[in-house]
Amino acid sequence: MSVKNIILITILCFLFIGGAYFLVAGGNKPEVKIITYSASDKEKPVLEVKETLIDMGKMKVSDEKEAIFIIKNIGTKPLQLYNMTSSCSCTFGQLIYDDKTSKEFGMHSVSDYLSDIAPNTEAKVKVIYRPSIMPVYGPVERELYISTNDPNKTRLVLQVKTIVQ
After folding, report:
1. Distance (Å, rounded) from C-alpha 135 to C-alpha 137?
2. Which among 2, 61, 69, 75 is placed 20 to 30 Å from 40, CA to CA?
3. CA–CA separation, 136 and 164 (whole Å)
4. Mind giving me the DSSP string for 87-98?
5. Residues 19, 85 share a domain
6. Which domain holds residue 155?
7. Are residues 64 and 25 in the same domain?
8. Same-domain status, 20 and 52
9. CATH number for the domain including 124?
10. Average pLDDT for the chain
């Protein structure tokens, strides 16, 4: 066997072993730690959202529209936002906090993203509606669902409505 063949076989073995490792290790995500509180706790996160419904007006089925919701933590402990999903394949969301933007999440791509919103700070949730994915016409309402560790508001529902023409 030539030296070239030995080097080639060695490189291929390392690539195979490395690839197998990344396939196996890639599925092992670190466990997310959700901190829980009871409603009677004095120190806890408190979610405040001024509006949970935004009217996006009229749009064409080929359009894409966005709405921004502001979420504030008025409590004394970090507010955790996680398990974000939507009510339809045509509706997506993104969490924006501390100059970081999550990947888009939706009905079939539940977010594994977790964000800790520090006390007295706010985050933005962007809702993106793309009616061309599931074409419907007339009045439409879609929702985004976000789990929280606020003991008095464990699930946040944000709605957008529009008239698709």
Report:
1. 7
2. 69
3. 7
4. SSTTEEEEEEET
5. no
6. 47-164
7. no
8. no
9. 2.60.40.10
10. 89
Tokens of 22: 């990344």
The span from the CA of 38 to the CA of 26, in Å, is: 35
Q: Which two tokens stand for residue 88?
A: 């339809």
Q: Note the pLDDT of residue 16.
A: 61
DSSP class of 43: S
Taking the C-alpha atoms of residue 71 and residue 165, their distance in angstroms, rounded to an integer, is 31
d(Cα 99, Cα 138) in Å, to the nearest integer?
36
Please name the amino acid found at residue 102.
Answer: S
Q: Is 99 left (phi over 0), alpha (psi -120 to 50) or beta?
A: left
The runs of H, that is alpha helices, within the chain are 3-26
C-alpha distances in Å from residue 127, one per residue of 1, 24, 104, 131, 153: 61, 34, 9, 13, 20
Which residues lie closer than 8 Å to 1 by C-beta, 6 or more apart? none
Identify whether residues 75 and 22 lie together within a single domain: no
Based on the domain organization, do 80 and 158 belong to the same domain? yes
3 state SS of 123 = strand
- If we measure between CA atoms, which residue out of 144, 122, 133, 147 comes closest to residue 54? 144
56, 161 contact by CB (below 8 A) = yes
pTM: 0.79
Q: Mind listing the pLDDT tens digit for each residue in 39-50?
A: 999 999 999 999
